Amino acid sequence: DAKQQGRNTWHWYEGDQHRGTEEAVVLRHDLHTALQEDQFELYYQPIVEAVNGRIRGLEALIRWHHPERGMISPGVFIPLAEQTGQIIPLGRWILRRACQDAAAMRAEDGLVVPVAVNISSLQFRREGFLADVQEALDDAGLPPELLELEVTESVLLDGAEQAITLINELKAMGIRVALDDFGTGFSSLSYLRDLPIHKVKLDRAFIQDIGTNRSNAAIVQGIITMAHHLDLTVVAEGIEEREQQQDLIRRNCDLLQGFYFARPMPREAIMELPGQLPSTVEV
Ligand code: C2E
Ligand code: MG
Ligand code: MG
Ligand code: MG
Q1: Which residues line ligand 1 (CB under 6 A)?
Q2: Which of 38, 60, 196, 264 sits CB 3.0–4.6 Å from 98 for a disulfide?
Q3: Contacts of 275 (CB under 8 A, 6+ apart)
């Protein structure tokens, strides 16, 4: 029906340029066996406390090691997996692996920080999602406080009320939800008020030129101030330079994430990091 069509069309956003290409056809096909053939890996990127660089969280970011094409970016294949429906089994695998990894890092390495998992809107809205989350936690023996879910405002597309109900249910299970990529797309400030989230992640697009673009700096400052009035934690994504770090500290941003601190890396590499980042620069 028309509603279904509209929803699917909308989900092609990032993958549009690949959708009709030969590459997309091949990749969509290859996605079907990739899970069985163990071609996916979860990388983790630290999220640090702005004022002292201490690691306060990890974001799980999926990687696909394609047998012929090498590493393929999730920006390319996640939209394809959404088109084919593969995102459902893949999303379940991601949740389970992230919970297992978080439990292992806690037990074996003493790293007790929440792991954030990106959830596709299709996965989020699907019946049985909450049961999948609970099962992933139970099977890994992970306390719910150590799992965080990142959703984007696209979860609101099929109705805000349903999304609010789901996030409240997650909250009741002890799991926190962050609003990812805030400021892009259809962001409305009222989402910050209406959604029972605990954290908002400022999109990298605003951070990139924060030192030179006064409008972006003003938007960032406005979001941080308002989010704090609403008792939300603010994370800035895509910090690549010391100037951006300093700027965001001045603007009272709580948490920072970006290549300046650490790139996404395999779990074993995370354990080699010092507790405070960047280790070579004075903060
Ligand atoms: P996202 O959730 O906003 O993740 C942040 C992206 O920014 C990641 O790209 C990360 O590698 C990148 N990044 C972090 N710091 C910097 C920086 O300083 N500079 C630059 N240029 N980039 C930085 P990645 O891993 O390629 O993922 C892209 C997107 O794909 C994610 O954006 C998310 O929307 C999606 N994605 C990734 N992993 C998953 C997953 O497990 N499940 C789902 N559903 N989506 C995922
Ligand atoms: Mg994210
Ligand atoms: Mg993001
Ligand atoms: Mg993004």
Answers
A1: 45, 60-62, 73-75, 78, 94, 118-120, 150, 180-181, 204, 237-240, 257-259, 264
A2: 60
A3: 54, 55
- Residue 152 CA: nearest ligand 1 atom is 34
Q: What is the pLDDT of residues 209-259, one digit of tens each?
A: 999 999 999 999 999 999 999 999 999 999 999 999 999 999 999 999 999
- 230-236's contacts with Cβ under 8 Å and 24+ in sequence apart are 230/192, 230/193, 232/192, 232/197, 232/198, 232/199, 232/200, 233/198, 233/199, 233/200, 234/199, 234/200, 234/201, 234/202, 235/47, 235/178, 235/199, 235/200, 235/201, 235/202, 236/50, 236/201, 236/202, 236/207
Helical pair 22-34 and 74-84, crossing angle rounded to 10 deg: 80
- Which residue's CA is the nearest one to ligand 1's atom 41? 62
Contact 208, 174 (CB under 8 A): no
Distances from the Cα of 241 to the Cαs of 96, 108, 220, 281, in angstroms?
34, 33, 17, 11
Instruction: Give this complex's ipTM.
Output: 0.98
29-41: pLDDT as tens digits: 999 999 999 999 9
Q: Checking DSSP bridges between strand 147-151 and strand 115-118, what pairing results, if any?
A: parallel
Residue having the nearest C-alpha atom to atom 46 of ligand 1: 118
